[in-house]
């Protein structure tokens, strides 16, 4: 682990459409263990935001508590961040989003944060289809308290302590699908090629985008007996297809044969392109996605890629009928306060 | 037996079955008296139940303005619930009246020879007049109100106008309701010598006043105070705060052309999430609130600690009910004082505002948003079931159109653009303990920071450095001192010649205390009085404590919680703070207060002798 963040950048380093370099998307130096999967995810977030030419200050990054929840400090230092309370990131994100629908919301959580202490809030944010990208950095254990099993640990999986887990795991992907999340995907911290387009698609999706990322804990759960180790993932990873994210203006360069690819247009005109591998996978079929996830689990495989997307879903603001003119937090006093006259009328009806 | 004779000073209680529509009928009696110019305090004493259990509705009519609960005794009992009738009969004062349905003969065990019985054949009349069983049930209530109008000399025109007002927009309901009133009215006129000794006489004591429940007033205060995000979880007796906010916002905060809402109300999965939503929204820069009661405060404590330490505004309305645990959900108390003042672990304390009347609910609610932004911390408004869910006589609500929201120290994009030094979120530049906030998304390259509940330095960076930590905790103390200068002062009434003893009270103990003080005065005991309106206590409170030898602290909980706060925060000698308590779940009465003070005075006298 290095303790100095090098400031030097190659003078010819690439800039994106808004003139930012990759460095503009970085944060303070990570304090996680060397080789931690979470640091790879941080790098993928940096790359995704750079490539999407997102203005860093338009992002709100929100997390709970745990190793994963520390990572928002390691990217997008020009964004406001909120490291909240254990398991409560969803409610903070919900309130922030209600106050300002124009920001990009990036929530970072872990398997302890989401599948145990915060499972109630996770369930409800998914069913409300809050417009955000919710990422779980899933390592199957509690890193900060030294390696206890988490609720996503598979039956029989053994972390550093060597005792196999006996309890049925919480499958967050199945839950998100069942609860009506409008975008559900799984990635692997060790596969950046797949992860970056998934993050880009999730950030561009309007509605609740859930991204479960298997992210090995090198210190406590990268053991031969663990199903969340690098080795296990590499051996058992299965993909729904090769995912690509195509911005709105990019022309489609590669010709695919019919039936080989699915092109899904998101609300802002961008595309998610799924280059099919093997089975005829339809990422717009929720029931099919659930079945594919179940099938993979039966076979001991870990299904990755884009599992489901509904690009036409209604987000929470659509349902509530919130004003589209201004974010609520920007409303002026004239709009907010009904004034003395209206109050006199209310007094009159109370006599 | 001499029938009771009294004008404009009496208590009438209605005993009904929950869920039979009695509440709105009984309210007619209260509102008619109110419109006739006599102060009233209707209290709904209801079970935690939707249908079937006994419920009571009590109205104290008092031209003198004594609007606290008098005692458990009543002058007129309208006994409509056979289930509770035996007990109800016992509560009638000697010479008082029992009004009952005489379709069935009254059981001999209900006979007392010191009270007057007025039988109305209500069931019989309803069976005769109405086909629909549901209407029979509903109109039974209206019929007895009509009869009471004749018996107590309510102005029948006022009563009829109320019906017309109540059913505005549903005109077809007006005629049958007035018909039912007349049925009762005429029956009473024909069969009894109307009016009785207990009667209502028009006067002018409610001129310009309004009759409104505290929860509606809080909701209006929030609407006027600019709240635009509400996260909440249903819990009695706070639910109607949010219901009212939604009702008024739908009318007053919705774009007339597009129908789009300039507010968002979201029912959360629990109180944890409700408070999380409030903090998220406030962090983003909207004004946000939630409403709850004791059990919700327990769950919100986690986030209240975050609000304190990360310095995020939040407004919480705590409508207190009887605890501990689930307690008596539909009965009142002031028992969350300590749990709110020190909610959450670690060295944490919170600003409390304590209203007594609806007007004060409105003012304190709107002010809470200013205070919360100025102090960058949670403000808890401590109401209770008695104030929140009952209609209370109040001064009219007022708003000054020139008033501007005080948003506290928030840097705009321009401020940040001009800024040359490094931004430090928790730097105490002004010495008042309050740093400068920036809102997410304000400036492309300046002012971003990381909000966290873990220890942070003046630049919001994570730290485990003891000096940084201690400096932060000391600064929060300085902010607490600043809070003392901003919160409302106590209301102090001193005797001209200066009494050596005083009473301290707050919230809904107000009316009962006033009445008790008058009664004690008649017996030759006079006291200075201080009504607390906020925590932390400011200098006025300290001075009042220092200026008196004995102080009776009147409150509605078992453990004398405010007394504890006074002892701890003002370092007052506990021996001079005498607890005066009422925690039955019913509002504290003047009688309870007077008796406890008298007992203490007698003990003192004995000791002296």
Q: Would you kindly provide a written description of the structure presented here, covering whatever features stand out?
A:
The complex is a heterodimer of chains A (351) and B (609). Chain A has 351 residues and is of the alpha/beta class. Chain A has a single domain, classed as Rossmann fold. In chain A, the strands form three sheets. Chain A has an eight-stranded mixed sheet, with helices on both faces. Chain A has a three-stranded antiparallel sheet with strand order 10-12-11. In chain A, strand 1, helix 2 and strand 2 form a beta-alpha-beta unit. In chain A, helix 1 packs across helix 7. The mean pLDDT of chain A is 92. Chain A has twelve helices and 13 strands. Chain B contains 19 helices and 23 strands. With 609 residues, chain B is an alpha/beta fold. In chain B, strand 19, helix 16 and strand 20 form a beta-alpha-beta unit. Chain B is globular and about 90 Å long. Chain B has four domains: 194 residues, Pyruvate-ferredoxin Oxidoreductase, domain 3, CATH 3.40.920.10; 183 residues, Rossmann fold (3-Layer(aba) Sandwich); 73 residues, no CATH class; 118 residues, Rossmann fold, CATH 3.40.50.920. The longest helix of chain B is centred in the C-terminal third of the chain and has 21 residues. Strand 2 of chain A pairs parallel with strand 17 of chain B, so a sheet runs across the interface.
């Amino acid at each position: 682990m290095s303790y100095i963040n090098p400031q030097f950048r190659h003078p010819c380093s690439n800039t994106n459409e808004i003139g930012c370099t990759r460095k503009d998307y970085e944060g303070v130096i990570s304090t996680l263990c060397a080789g931690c999967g979470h640091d790879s995810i941080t790098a993928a977030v940096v790359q995704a935001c750079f490539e999407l030419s997102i203005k860093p200050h338009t992002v709100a990054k929100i997390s709970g508590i745990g190793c994963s929840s520390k990572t928002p400090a390691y990217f997008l230092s020009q964004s406001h961040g909120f490291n909240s309370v254990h398991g409560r990131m969803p409610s903070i994100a919900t309130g922030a989003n209600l106050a300002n629908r124009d920001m990009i919301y990036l929530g970072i959580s872990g398997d302890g944060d989401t599948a145990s202490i915060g499972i109630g809030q996770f369930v409800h944010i998914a069913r409300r289809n809050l417009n955000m990208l919710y990422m779980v950095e899933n390592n199957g254990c509690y890193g900060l308290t030294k390696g206890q099993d988490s609720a996503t640990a598979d039956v029989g999986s053994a972390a550093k302590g060597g005792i196999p887990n006996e309890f049925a795991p919480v499958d967050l992907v199945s839950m998100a699908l069942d609860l009506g999340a409008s975008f559900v995907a799984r990635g692997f911290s060790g596969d950046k090629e797949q992860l970056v387009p998934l993050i880009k698609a999730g950030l561009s999706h309007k509605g609740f985008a859930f991204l479960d990322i298997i992210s090995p804990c090198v210190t406590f759960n990268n053991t031969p007996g663990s199903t969340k180790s690098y080795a296990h993932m590499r051996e058992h990873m299965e993909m729904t297809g090769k995912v690509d994210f195509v911005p709105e203006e990019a022309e489609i360069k590669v010709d695919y044969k019919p039936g080989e690819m699915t092109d899904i247009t998101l609300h802002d005109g961008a595309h998610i392109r799924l280059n099919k591998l093997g089975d005829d996978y339809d990422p717009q079929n929720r029931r099919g996605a659930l079945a594919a996830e179940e099938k993979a689990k039966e076979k001991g495989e870990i299904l990755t890629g884009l599992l489901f997307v509904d690009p036409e879903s209604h987000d929470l603001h659509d349902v509530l009928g919130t004003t589209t003119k201004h974010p609520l937090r920007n409303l002026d006093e004239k709009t907010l306060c009904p004034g003395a006259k209206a109050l006199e009328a209310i007094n009159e009806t109370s006599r | 037996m001499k029938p009771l004779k009294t004008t404009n000073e009496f208590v009438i209680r209605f005993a009904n079955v929950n869920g039979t529509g009695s509440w709105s009928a009984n309210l007619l009696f209260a509102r008619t008296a109110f419109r006739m110019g006599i102060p009233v305090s209707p209290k709904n004493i209801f079970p935690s139940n939707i249908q079937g259990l006994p419920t009571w509705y009590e109205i104290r009519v008092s031209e003198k303005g004594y609007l606290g609960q008098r005692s458990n005794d009543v002058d007129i009992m309208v006994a409509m619930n056979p289930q509770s009738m035996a007990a109800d009969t016992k509560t009638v004062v000697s010479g008082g009246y029992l009004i009952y349905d005489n379709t069935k003969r009254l059981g001999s065990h209900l006979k007392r020879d010191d009270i007057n019985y007025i039988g109305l054949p209500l069931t019989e009349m309803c069976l005769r007049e109405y086909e629909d069983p549901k209407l029979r049930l509903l109109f039974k209530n209206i019929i007895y109100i009509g009869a009471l109008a004749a018996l107590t000399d309510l102005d029948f025109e006022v009563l009829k106008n109320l019906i017309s007002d109540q059913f505005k927009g549903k005109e077809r309901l007006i005629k049958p309701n007035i018909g039912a009133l007349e049925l009762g009215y005429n029956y009473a006129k024909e069969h009894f010598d109307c009016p009785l000794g207990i009667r209502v006489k028009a006067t002018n004591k409610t001129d310009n006043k309004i009759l409104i429940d505290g929860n509606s007033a809080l909701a209006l205060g929030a609407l006027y105070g600019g709240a635009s995000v509400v996260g909440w979880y249903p819990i009695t007796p706070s639910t109607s705060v949010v219901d009212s906010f939604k009702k008024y916002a739908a009318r007053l905060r919705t774009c007339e052309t597009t129908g789009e809402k300039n507010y968002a109300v979201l029912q959360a999965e629990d109180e944890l999430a409700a408070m999380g939503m409030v903090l998220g929204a406030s962090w983003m820069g909207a004004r946000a609130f939630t409403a709850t009661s004791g059990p919700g405060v327990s769950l919100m404590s986690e986030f209240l600690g975050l609000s304190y330490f990360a310095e995020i505004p939040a407004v919480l309305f705590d409508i207190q009910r009887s605890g501990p645990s689930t307690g008596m959900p539909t009965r009142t108390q002031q028992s969350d004082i300590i749990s709110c003042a020190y909610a959450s672990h670690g060295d944490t304390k919170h600003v409390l505002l304590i209203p007594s009347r609806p007007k004060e609910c409105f003012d304190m609610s709107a002010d809470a948003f200013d205070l919360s932004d100025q102090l960058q911390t949670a403000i808890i408004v401590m109401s209770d079931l008695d104030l929140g869910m009952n209609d209370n006589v109040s001064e009219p609500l007022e708003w000054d159109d020139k008033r501007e929201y005080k948003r506290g120290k928030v840097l705009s994009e321009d401020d940040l653009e001009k800024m040359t030094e490094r931004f430090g979120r928790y730097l105490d530049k002004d010495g008042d303990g309050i740093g400068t906030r920036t809102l997410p998304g304000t400036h492309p390259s300046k002012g971003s920071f990381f909000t966290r509940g873990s220890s942070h330095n003046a630049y919001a960076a994570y730290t485990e450095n003891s000096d940084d930590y201690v400096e932060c905790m000391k600064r929060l103390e300085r902010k607490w001192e600043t809070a003392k200068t901003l919160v409302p002062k106590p209301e102090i009434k001193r005797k001209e010649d200066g009494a050596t003893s005083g009473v301290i009270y707050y919230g809904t103990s107000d009316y009962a205390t006033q009445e008790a003080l008058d009664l004690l005065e008649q017996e030759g005991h006079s006291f200075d009085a201080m009504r607390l309106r906020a925590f932390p206590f400011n200098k006025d409170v300290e001075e009042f404590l220092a200026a008196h030898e004995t102080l009776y602290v009147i409150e509605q909980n078992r453990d004398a919680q405010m007394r504890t706060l006074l002892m701890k925060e003002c370092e007052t000698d506990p021996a001079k703070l005498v607890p005066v308590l009422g925690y039955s779940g019913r509002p504290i009465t003047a009688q309870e207060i007077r008796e406890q003070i008298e007992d203490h005075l007698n003990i003192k006298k004995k000791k002296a002798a």
